[in-house]
Amino acid sequence: MSYQDIASHLKEMYDFDVSAGTISAVTDKLVPLIEDWRSRPLESIYPIVFLDGMYFKSRDNGKVMTKVIYNILGVNQEGYKEILGFYVAESEGSNFWLGVLNDLKQRGVQDLLIACVDGLRGFPEAIKGAFPKTEIQLCIIHQIRNSLKYVASKNQKEFMKDLKEVYQAPNKEAAEYNLLKSEEKWGEKYPMVIKSWQSHWEHLSHYFQYSGEIRNLIYTTNATLGFHRQVRKYTNTSYAVCSKRVGI
User: Fold this and answer.
1) Quick one: which of 84, 144, 154, 186 has the fewest CB in 10 Å?
2) What global pTM score does this model have?
3) 234: containing domain
4) Burial class for 170, CB neighbours closer than 10 Å (0-12, 13-18, 19+)
């Protein structure tokens, strides 16, 4: 939003008059604080980190564009959640993620034990370069959603029933056995879906080595959704008002 948009938004929402110059002065004071927060020192070890993205409407050179901001949520050694940083993906890939990971290292992070991601392109390669011992757990929920895109609606209920036998199996051996059964049943009809599970199995199956409580925490990136909902309360309202005003 431009400064004038913000001023108009405050007037419409709260009947509060403030000049664009005042908003600019406030922004000038806030930006250094934001930058200090973004570069603050971090703990040396995070047992679990989650990476997930949010899509925003952003004004860029006078045009409103959609951009994705990836949020890194860490669970520290005391079990508390902490947002480690926000990163705008101008060009997603291994170079982007290597830059993100190097930023974490420069801020004091020495090791990440488990990284839970949604299948972000280039991330597994980058994280192994920065933190070679980190285990990468791909989000099961994202994998399921991507699979169902290619399954006919008439088969989805039965296909999901068979998938549950895979990702809800009591151990990795049982999961692999059930995945083979799914391949025998669905492999000819949906070969790309089965191949996707097989090719990503190394990173999809790490959670089987942990207890039930840890499994429920790391098998999906849903830990970030609560944070995303809080952010959306503000961004959706502000953008809706701005869009209405400029005719988007």
Assistant:
1) 154
2) 0.81
3) 42-137+223-248
4) exposed
One domain, residues 4 and 66: no
Give how far the C-alpha of residue 86 lies from the chain's centroid of Cα atoms, to the nearest Å: 10
Query: What is the tens place of the pLDDT at every residue in 93-152?
Result: 667 888 888 999 999 999 999 999 887 777 788 888 889 999 999 999 999 999 999 999
Judge whether 78 and 48 are in contact, CB under 8 Å.
no
In a shared domain, residues 24 and 78: no
Assess whether 110 and 183 both reside in one domain: no
Contacts of 51 (CB under 8 A, 6+ apart): 70, 71, 72, 73, 115, 116, 117, 118, 120, 123, 221
Residue 183: both structure tokens together:
């391949």
Nearest by Cα to 194 from 206, 178, 207: 178
Number of domains composing the chain: 3
Q: Please give the Cα distance from 54 to 240 (Å, whole number).
A: 17
Beta bridge partners of 82: 74
